[in-house]
Design a protein that fits this description.
alpha/beta, Rossmann fold, abc type-2 transporter like fold, 3 domains, 6-stranded mixed β-sheet, 4-stranded antiparallel β-sheet, 22 helices, binds adenosine-5'-triphosphate
């Protein structure tokens, strides 16, 4: 494609920007009908005050940002012909120089030999230390030079440099300019450079002075200075700015120009060149995978944390939650005989001697059941102990308890009213803790049934008469003494499976986004599907290890029930992990700071955990919440996992396949949201620089 300038049709143009409009919000218009012509084979110095939109314009030229209206033409065929040095360092600080050049070199499509020879050449030219040096340990100036080296690595036709000389000493700065002049001298290379050091831009062939979203002037430095009769560019820029302010009748360049902004029907066809290539390249995917491998290799503490976290969490869960509480204190007030419970030792605990106090036998029976007995002389002092948290309840036996109980058993409906009353055991509980209260009640009731059955058996009476006439047959699924851990284990593994990859994904992508690494890779030619795919591959490896650790702790070490298909269990868990990962992509794209991402992650964690029936069954929720809860990412998959693990349901069972469908649906939804957010945000440049 041969471009010609609007003003000078005879000249070949590398970049032509025609009436470019762009704003981030209706009140922050950055480009206001900007025109720009960059002749091929020249250096174009783009100057302007901070925040005037230079970086925005460059990102549109390299195809990362899109215009609202206008046209940009770039005379190159692919992104490989562009070398881009962003304003921020945008380099992996954990990598060595060799690893950095290898990564970008492979993205640019260079062979290993080309990368090696070019690296050697540029290291010498830019006066950088050895290839083994770690980027994070370089000085600020060395870092900037390495960033420039990456932009020069593939010898591009068009070099776009956003403030390359910041933090570089004057000698090196001069040699960089000299190098740029040399490469442009052949007439084949073009450089667009922004700088705050206006005077150094004197060496450029053309200067574009940007202010208020337009170019105030676009000509050679000498013409510019001659026109305003100045001997330096700074003065010329000041003169121009004054002129523009007078012309627009205001000094305020943030003036609201929403009225003059093109309305949707006025907008011209927007041509944004060099949009990301749609296909997936094996070489670029490999470069990304190798890059991720290097990252993991260099961040061993983070990797250890990611592998130890599920281990510790599952271990803590199994050891801290769901076990029956032990050593619960119960106050006993026994008015059956003088001298207290110590006297119980005198009586045998078995046999059918009905002259021995039966309260002793019952108390002995419940003593075995995780309950610690403390004796009190009267109800008032026992209640006081409960009030002062020294006991979870009190149990009271009246005087003549044994005689009354025997009369109640032997006389049945003929037993006196007094016998009926005295044979009642009175229990007062602290029910402020529902779980402990219910457990103690269960043990007191079951202990009573056991005690009575033993007595009946010893006396040769049918023990069934003493039992509640309900027979608990073997449970169809699970056992008749269900554990809270068995109920929550599938939910816990699903929750970890969803959130661990989410945390890792948000961390990795957001770090790359905030440091400008993602943007740089995208400009270099990496596509969003490649970023997602390579991340998924790496993350799946981590996830498989994390899942194996969690399965081992939950189902082997702590023997939670897993009677169904292990391959289907793993597939379901990985699909939940994939949904978590895709949620991570969405959060990382939507949030510009790690604080925002933390709030978003934490903000969804508790509602998800509560509304998904993990802490409490869905059946116990308000009907409005229940009608929403089923649709959340963890509800149906958790039920499906419970179906497979505890009930051995096949994948054709509706509960199980609905879990798979839910995960797949959420994966699709999160990916769609990620894609739409990328489109809506018009790029992946983090707002806060
Ligand atoms: N992603 C974004 N979302 C919203 N506003 C943005 C975004 N990126 C930049 N801006 C705003 O657009 C304006 C132009 O920013 P830009 O970075 O293009 O300026 P600049 O001329 O490169 O500044 P500097 O010389 O300081 O780098 C600024 O007001 C900035 O706050």
């Amino acid at each position: 494609m041969n471009l010609t300038s609007r003003g000078d049709p005879a000249r070949d143009m590398m970049v032509v920007v025609d009436k470019a409009y762009k704003r981030y919000t209706p009140y922050s218009v950055v480009l206001r009908g900007l025109n720009m012509n960059v002749p091929t084979g020249t250096i174009y110095g783009l100057l302007g005050p901070s925040g005037c939109g230079k970086t925005t314009l460059l990102s549109c030229i390299v195809g990362r940002g899109s215009l609202d209206s206008g046209n940009i033409s770039v005379n190159v065929k692919s992104k490989r012909s562009i070398g881009y040095m962003p304003q921020e360092l945008a380099l992996y600080t954990e990598f060595s120089i060799r690893e950095t050049t290898l990564y970008y070199g492979r993205i640019f499509g260079l062979s290993f030999e080309q990368i090696h020879s070019r690296t050697k050449e540029l290291l010498t030219f830019l006066d950088l230390p050895s290839e083994d040096s770690i980027v994070g340990k370089l000085s600020g100036g060395q870092g900037r030079r390495l960033s420039l080296m990456i932009a020069l690595l593939h010898d591009p036709k068009l070099l776009i440099l956003d403030e390359p000389t910041v933090g570089v000493d004057p000698v090196l700065s001069a040699s960089i300019w000299q190098h740029l002049l040399t490469i442009c001298a052949t007439g084949k290379k073009t450089v667009i450079i922004t700088t705050h050091y206006i005077e150094e831009a004197r060496q450029a062939h053309t200067i574009g002075l940007m202010r208020g979203g337009t170019l105030l002037a676009e000509e050679s430095p000498n013409q510019l200075m001659a026109r305003y009769n100045c001997n330096n560019l700074e003065q010329a820029f000041l003169e121009l700015s004054k002129k523009q302010s007078i012309a627009s009748g205001t000094q305020d360049e943030t003036v609201d120009v929403t009225e003059s902004y093109p309305s949707p029907e006025d907008k011209k066809t927007v041509v944004t060149p060099l949009q990301s290539t749609k296909y997936i390249s094996k070489a670029r995917i490999t470069a990304q995978l190798v890059k991720n491998y290097y990252w993991m290799k260099r961040n061993k503490p983070i990797m250890c944390f990611l592998l130890l976290l599920p281990l510790v969490q599952c271990f803590l869960f199994c050891t801290c939650i769901g076990r029956d509480p032990r050593g619960l204190k119960l106050a006993v007030v026994n008015h059956e005989f003088e001298g207290g419970l110590n006297r119980c030792m005198q009586y045998p605990s078995r046999g059918c001697n009905l002259s021995y106090p039966l309260s002793c036998r019952y108390v002995e029976n419940i003593r075995k059941k995780t309950i610690v007995i403390t004796e009190f002389p009267d109800i008032a002092s026992a209640k006081e102990a409960v009030r002062h948290n020294r006991a979870w309840g009190l149990i009271y036996f009246a005087q003549n308890y044994t005689e009354a109980l025997i009369e109640r058993i032997s006389e049945k409906d003929k037993a006196s009213k007094m016998a009926m009353e005295l044979s009642d055991v009175h229990i007062y509980q602290d029910m402020s803790n529902q779980y402990i209260g219910n457990l103690m009640r269960r043990d007191l009731l079951m202990g009573y049934v056991d005690f009575l059955q033993d007595l009946f058996r010893d006396c040769g009476w049918p023990p069934q008469v003493a039992d509640i006439p309900i027979l608990m047959e073997p449970a169809i699924y699970g056992n008749n003494n269900p554990s809270f851990v068995h109920f929550t284990a599938p939910a816990i593994i699903s929750l970890f499976e969803f959130y661990l990859p989410m945390i890792f994904t948000v961390g990795a992508i957001l770090m790359e986004k905030m440091a400008g690494l993602l943007e740089r890779s995208l400009v270099a030619g990496i596509t969003i599907p490649e970023v997602i795919l390579s991340h998924i591959v790496v993350q799946l490896v981590v996830l498989v290890i994390q899942t194996a650790i969690m399965m081992f702790v939950l189902f082997v070490l702590f023997d939670n029930p897993l009677i169904g298909s292990i391959p289907w269990s793993l597939t379901l868990l990985l699909s939940i992990g994939l949904a978590g990962m895709c949620y991570g992509f969405m959060v990382a794209i939507l949030c510009d700071t790690d604080t925002a991402a933390t709030f978003m992650g934490l903000g969804t964690f508790f509602p998800l955990a509560m509304l998904s029936g993990m802490i409490w069954p869905l059946e116990g929720m308000h009907w409005i919440l229940r009608s929403v809860g089923w649709a959340l990412p963890l509800t149906l998959p958790t039920e499906a996992f419970r179906g497979i693990s505890a009930r051995n349901w096949p994948v054709t069972h509706p509960t199980v396949y609905k879990g798979f469908l839910s995960s797949l649906g959420w994966i699709g939804f999160f990916l769609l949201m990620t894609y739409s957010s990328v489109k809506l945000k018009k790029g992946l440049r983090a707002k806060s620089k």
